[in-house]
Structure formats: structure tokens, C-alpha cells
Amino acid sequence: MRNLLRNKTYSLVNIVGLAVGLATVLVIFLIVQFEYSFDNFHKNKDRIYRLVSVPYKEGTGFNATAAVPLPVAAGLRIDYPQIEKVASIFGRDAQITIEEGKEQEEKKFNETRSIYFAEPSFFDIFSFEWLAGDPKTALNDPNSVVLTREIAEKYFGDWRSAIGKTIKYDNKEIYQIKGILENPPVNTDFPLKIVISYRSLKNVDLNDWVGTYGRGYCFALLPPGSDPAKFNLSLHDFVKRHKPADHINDGIILQPLADIHFNPVFGNFNGRTFSKKIIGTLSLVALFLIIIASVNFINLATVQMINRSKEIGVRKVLGSGRAQLVVQFIGETALITVCAVLLALGLATLALPFLNDLLQTEISINFSDLRTILFLIILTISVTLLAGFYPAVISSGFRPIEALKNKLSAGWMRGIIEKSVGSFAILHRPGFIYLCIDYGEPDELFLQCSSWL
Question: Among residues 218, 225, 69, 48, which one has the least CA distance to residue 128?
Fold first, then answer.
């Protein structure tokens, strides 16, 4: 602490330089962690698959899409009774009308990417939290609907008072509220707000095995231990059984839930995917930033060690061992790194609102998240060792006499060499005579020998 306070400019440059680099690394970590966290909160996430349409042969005029024909879910239940759960979900945009008060005043809301028609089994597959209502029966009957807390409060003020009330869909159908969902987390590709019974879905052909609707998805929960690759092979026969002969190349395969957020070919309800290549590139950028910040620290520390060489020499003369000096200098680096990490947290906190506006995300620093705490600890230790080990080892290796004579220049050394014969040299300076034995090059002569008066 005393050394850092004495050398304020050196300390400030090192701390700020490290902090800027570490703040960027921290922001990259938060981005990567956020993108990989999508839909990880579902209990059976490793067994959830979306069925998607792909061409079995190229050039058939059929393009890959996340939608499948609407009868697929019913067909899977019949042909594959071993599948634990199957559910269809259909996204739509519409205007919702709320009638309230004695005079039945109307409030209208245009909902985009918020309304979904879903089968009751959808909530057996996905682990969304319910505040009110029974997830097994709430969507059994036609004209029933489930709202999220956010939408219920927007429509009725208090979500508790919404149960049993009605909403009007596109100024036509009336739906009764049978349940309330907790608001879905921000890291989900299912931005549910209004979920209507699938039996209320109209203006679609539920028996058409050829056509698809852009937001008509089908999900399946496979039994534990199932092999998705084998199931994909059997789906080829499934298509042959149900599709017309001229459409047997319109294949269907399973897409893991973990792939939905990262696959731009099929997309998702959020309308936003994130490339794994970008994540790999960002990770490399973070690694290089750590290396660059550490090298910059090493350069500054090495220069500082030259100025502290006398201190090192005195410590060694007074009995300090090399290991003690290494621990001391790494300790100083650790102190600087901790200060830099704390400053980096502040810089990252200031930067995140701008980043969220740019990327349309809701990333924040969560200190209750064990992964974030562990990352900060690992980052601090890694930078401390990477940036502090080399200067500590080099500086602790200074020889006492060399360290104590650190201000002697090579030019001064050449000027005092008077005579050298074989392995001996006599150096002269007014009032002093130096005898050196087994010297090396003239520049190293004085620093490598013992001195005599």
C-alpha cells in the first residue's frame, strides 16, 4: 500500500489500464452468459425438442422452416405413444378489447408477438410458473385464456381480480380468464403474454398435412434415454404415411431446445437469434484483451522494478529470500488487480444500459449469481498470476551488489577500466582502486565483480 501510494501515477495508470480491459472482458462474459441462459430454466430442457420441416432432398422446392403441418401433433400421439408429451402452439397478433365499469367502457390494446393458442400439454413440457389457475385444466375448454401478471395488471389493475373476467379477441370471440402466469423471464424465446385454448383456434385447416403456418410450432418431450437420431430416422416413415406421395421429400426432424436460440435458419417466437460464431469471436476478443492488459501491466511493472532495485538490494542484504520477494510483488499485483476489478464493475455497470439499448437485451450484473462471482474470482487470480509472476521473478532475481549499484551506466564503466590482463582487471577512480577477477564484457565488469578498496 505504501509503495502504491508513493507512486500514485504508476498506480493510477496500471489500475485504470487494467480496469478498462477487465470491464470489457466482464461485459463480454455477461453477453455470452446471457445468450447461453435462454430457456435453461425449464425442468426438462434436455428432453424438449421442436419438430421442424426440412427438405430430404435438395431442389424439391421445399425450404427449411420451423413450422410443421398442424395435424403433426395428433399424428405423433397416435403413431408414437411412447412420447411423453406433445403440444402444438400457434402465434398470432390481434386486438384485445376490455369492457369495464357500469357503462361498459372499452379499452383496446394491439398485441404483437404476445398471443398464442396452445394445447394444455404445452405447460406439461415447459416449466412456466403459475400464480393462479390449474395448468392441467385451464386451457381444456374452448374460449378459455391465461394471462401473464404483466398483461393482467395492464388490463385490470390487479392480477388477482382478473380471474373469471373476460377479454374480447379481435372484436369477435369472448374468452374467459382461467389462470395467471408469472411473467416469463427475459432469457426465453417464448414471450408469452396471452395464451388461449388451442381448441379456440379458427380460420386454419387442422387436417392439412401439406401446408404450414409461419408461427405454428409443435413440441415434443421425449422419454428419458431416448435417441433423437433414431427418432429422426423413424420420422421419415412418419412423413411417408401421412403426406401425399408428391410431398414425401418434405421431411420432419427434431431440433433440440438448446439450438432454438442459436439457429437463424428456423428462428423462434422472439424473432431474435444469436450466432455461436459471434460468441466464439467475442470469447477470443476477451482472451486477447486479458493478454494485452497483462502485457501492458508487465511493461509498466518492469520499468518500476528498475526504480525499486535498491529497495530489492537492501531487502536481500537484510536477509529476504527470493520466495519472499516474489510473494511481495505478486501481492502488490493482486492489490492492483482487485482495485482494477472493482473499478471495472463500475465501468461495466455504466456501460450496460447503452449495450442493452444497442442489442435489445436486458443484461445486468447479478451478484447473487454464483457463476458471475466465480468468474470475477478466476479473472482476478488469472490476471494477478499472468501480469505479476514475470516481473516478480525477474526483480527478485536481482543480485544485491547489482541492485545497489543500479545507477552506474555502461559509459561510466568504460571510463574507469584502466587495465586488464587475463582474468584480472584494475579499475581506478580518484581515492579508490578496484580489483576484479573473472570479469565478463567491459559493460558488465563492475556489476559482476567484488570490489576492493
Answer: 48
To the nearest whole number, what is the mean pLDDT of the chain?
84
Under the banding of pLDDT at 50, 70 and 90, the label for residue 14 is confident
Residue 30 placed within a domain: yes
pLDDT tens per residue, range 61-81: 668 899 999 999 999 999 999
Distance CA 409, CA 413 (A): 6
Residues 233 and 363 in one domain: no
φ/ψ (deg, to 5) at 41:
-80, -10
Tell me, yes or no, whether 414 and 398 share the same domain: no
Residues of the domain holding 439: 410-448
Identify whether residues 57 and 139 lie together within a single domain. yes
Give the whole-number percent of the chain exceeding pLDDT 90: 57
Q: Are residues 76 and 214 in the same domain?
A: yes
Q: In total, how many domains does the chain have?
A: 3
Question: Residue 63 burial (CB < 10 Å; 0-12/13-18/19+)?
Answer: exposed
